[in-house]
Amino acid sequence: MISFAQAQDNLHQLCRTWVATHPDVSEPLALCESLGRYLNEDVIAALELPRSDISAMDGYAICSQDREGTLTSQVFTLKGESRAGEPYSGDPLAPGECVRIFTGAVVPESADTVVIQENVERDNTSVRMLQGTSFGANIRRRGEEIAAHSAIAIAGQLITPNMIPLLASQGIAEVTVRAKLRVAFFATGDELKAAGDSLGEGDIYESNLASIAAVLGHYPIDLIDLGVVEDTPEAIKSCLAKASEKADVVISSGGVSVGDYDYVRQCVDAMGVVSDYKVAMKPGKPVCFGHIDDAENWKALFFGLPGNAVSSFVVLTELYLPVMKYLLNRERVIPNTLLEAILETDLSRRGGRLEFQRGVLSRDEDAGGRTSLRVSAMGSQDSHRVLGLARANCTIKIAADVEHISAGSKVTVSVFPWTDLQ
Ligand code: AMP
Ligand code: MG
Fold first, then answer.
1. Which of the four, 5, 125, 201, 335, has the lowest number of CB atoms within 10 Å?
2. Are 394 and 414 in contact (CB under 8 A)?
3. How many whole angstroms separate alpha carbon 341 and alpha carbon 394?
4. Cα(302) to centroid of ligand 2, in Å?
């Protein structure tokens, strides 16, 4: 059995090899359709920003007589106006002259300072400064925010809503993004029935396919649902062959433990390599991953999930999701968000494996207005308990050698990526 950290390293290595041997494929997308996708290349600024010296305030752009220090009580002759969309177009200002200017308007080249309108007294032809203004004040300098040809976003970066003002302000209407990852997935288990089917004695409704689709549906992934496969080596091999033709990653559910009908591992072994089997994590010990090969190359990565609904969910989100994000961005593994929280009640358990206990994380505010994060573990942590999973919003990570944690201690929680903290 390998540690969780070792499994993460091995998975990373496996995925690095896959990325190195599978050339990146990209597609152009309209900016407005690119949210949630990963950039395929650096975005280089086409424009410097601002494009000229721009006034930061409403006031007067002056050409000062005294070009040093703090300017006070000078009188300027008004020569015109510069407003957004209509820059001043008269003769260059001479010392002692000024133009009316508004926020966002181009500062004439011959002006050196903007004096805010609250600090002047004016009539129709002249402006008198009432207070000191430092030389060069209230001007946003050309190129001060973005230099021409500098990288404003980098390959592999996730395109998020807060990047849109930057990209749109560069006049960018289209970006090149990484192609979607193709993930084929199937479930094994002769007891599994689809919603709508009648249940015989011992049958259960299949729930892992929907769970995989729900977790991965948040990402740019083409999901190929291959349904439930019979618990026979022939059926599983034929499904693995079909899946690896169509997909970059094949995910299976169930059939990876050591029962008489658990054929998945031996089938993957026969068609490629099972690089690891058994990870010291709870829930989820029967985990195996590797790759499915053809003659020259890897056809697809293989990530096996345990059958139990909670184990399957935890292994997918905690172990596989960070490396799947690496396969998407092709640059780096993205761990789930870890936070420190105060444990609400004592927690005892049997040690030996890194455990991900389902928990409820909440924000607490004390009388002095100080906020803290608090977490409580769901009562039962059995790996089939879907009710506890549904009510949770995080997992509490408990190190393999820890058996008891007292209430009030700080623990590390891994927040479900879609959680809005109350
Ligand atoms: P297995 O890993 O195949 O031994 O399955 C372990 C447990 O999880 C068994 O009780 C199965 O009935 C259950 N199980 C397996 N696959 C699924 C699935 N796709 N949906 C819901 N439960 C499952
Ligand atoms: Mg089974």
1. 201
2. yes
3. 11
4. 18
Q: What is the pTM of this model?
A: 0.91
pLDDT in tens, the chain (422 residues): 999 999 999 999 999 999 999 988 999 999 999 999 999 999 999 999 999 999 999 999 999 987 766 677 789 999 999 999 999 999 999 999 999 999 999 999 999 999 999 999 999 999 999 988 999 999 999 999 999 999 999 999 999 999 999 999 999 999 999 999 999 999 999 999 999 999 999 999 999 999 999 999 999 999 999 999 999 999 999 999 999 999 999 999 999 888 888 899 999 999 999 988 889 999 997 899 999 998 777 899 999 999 999 999 999 999 999 999 999 999 999 999 999 999 999 999 999 999 999 999 999 999 999 999 999 998 887 767 899 999 999 999 999 999 999 999 999 999 999 998 87
State in Å: Cα 221 to ligand 2 middle: 26
Q: What is the CATH number of domain 2-25+179-329?
A: 3.40.980.10
Determine the distance separating the centroid of ligand 1 and the alpha carbon of 57, expressed in angstroms.
66
How do beta strands 371-377 and 354-365 pair?
Answer: antiparallel
The contacts of residue 373 (CB under 8 Å, 6+ apart) are 339, 340, 341, 342, 361, 362, 363, 364, 413, 421
Q: Which residue has the tokens 């002692």?
A: 96
Answer whether 2-25+179-329 and 338-415 agree in fold.
no
Name the architecture of domain 338-415: Beta Barrel (2.40)
Task: Report the alpha-carbon distance of residue 50 to residue 91 in Å, rounded.
Answer: 23
If DSSP states are collapsed to H, E and C, what string results for 141-179? CCCCCECCCCEEECCCCECCHHHHHHHHHCCCCEEEEEC
